[in-house]
Amino acid sequence: MQKRILYHIAFWVTYILYKSYLNFDSSSSKSDDENVISLFLETVLIQLVFVLAKIPLVYSLFYATDRYLSKQWSVFKTMLIVVVLFTLALFSFTLASQLIVNRLIKGQNPELWTSLTSLQSISYCFFILAFVSGIAISIKLIRLNIKQKIAEQELLKKKLEIELQFLKAQSNPHFLFNTLNNIYGLARKNSDKTADVVLRLSGMLRYMLYETANESIAIEKEIQMINDYIELEKLRYTNRLEVNFNHSIDNYKEKIAPLILLPFVENAFKHGAGESRFESYITINLTLKDWQLFYEIKNSKEEVLIAEEDKIGLRNIKRQLELLYPNHRLYIDHNANEFIVTLQINLKDGKI
């Protein structure tokens, strides 16, 4: 509020000085013998008198504009009030000009009634009032427009943040559900691997609870998460699954959105190796150089495969990528025997 008041004071001070300069400059050539400083101060004093009539008009018009824009007043009511305000302002401006400026400051004695009823005088006063009112309202409308755009951007940002949080909240249970299914399968077999799976799962859940709360993490943590997940999943399979995870990173501290890479690995296990009755493979290639990330996952599959649009994990991660990295490129291709996902991201263009 205090900052806003200072802006208004600055506007009126600037306006008074500008108008004083114009009037002083135009009259100084005719008054070479007068003291320049006293002439300028007199001009400033005159503008201060005129401002006493302009300020009530401007802020009354502000009030009327706010009521109209908020749809509390109709067009007719607003126009009627504007006409009344200008009529009162013209009368007060003319009185101030004749009684204070001309008589008290300049020492003149013009005919008051003639000045009040003169079409030329009324037109001149109306122009002066309309000019300052137009400038002030234009600034107000520009400010309101900027404020509205900022509010819309903040609202959109908040909406996207809520949507992203919802997607993450969906993704975490989806991952947990798949992993618990793995544990259930091992437990039924009374496998001695069950305890190791639970331990790894505990570490991954700790990561998901604490690290994913951040907007971004170091890519080395995401790589570690992928490695842990691969080791956890490999406990379910015998030699029929071959997994290769290759990564070449120029900066392991580079920031990336958490859990943006893992869902593709999860999808490869669930809908690739998990649905295959024969020997299968998963190949993961991750490269990061100069903020350019290239991520490719290939996995073998049976001929019958659920379309990727029907999978919660892929549909979810696609939307997260749209929100976090709008300029990313995601290609999903599959044939009878292989499913391929290729992702390209410029980490510098991300919204994190």
Structure keywords:
single chain; 9 helices; five-stranded mixed beta sheet; 7 strands; 352 residues; alpha+beta
* Main sheet attributes: strand count, strand direction, barrel closure: 5 strands, mixed
Average pLDDT, rounded to a whole number, is: 79
Estimated helix fraction:
55-70%
Unreliable parts? none
Can you walk me through this structure?
- This protein is an alpha+beta fold.
- Helices cover 64% and strands 13% of the residues.
- It is built from nine helices and seven strands.
- The protein has helices spanning 2-28, 36-69, 75-105, 112-117, 119-188, 194-210, 219-234, 262-271, 312-324; strands at residues 217-218, 241-249, 255-256, 280-289, 292-300, 329-334, 338-346.
- The strands form two sheets. It has a five-stranded mixed β-sheet, with helices on one face.
- β6 and β7 form a beta hairpin.
- α3 (75-105) crosses α5.
- The longest helix is centred in the middle third of the chain and has 70 residues, at 119-188.
- It is rod-shaped.
- It starts with a helix and ends in a 6-residue tail after the last strand.
- The mean pLDDT is 79.
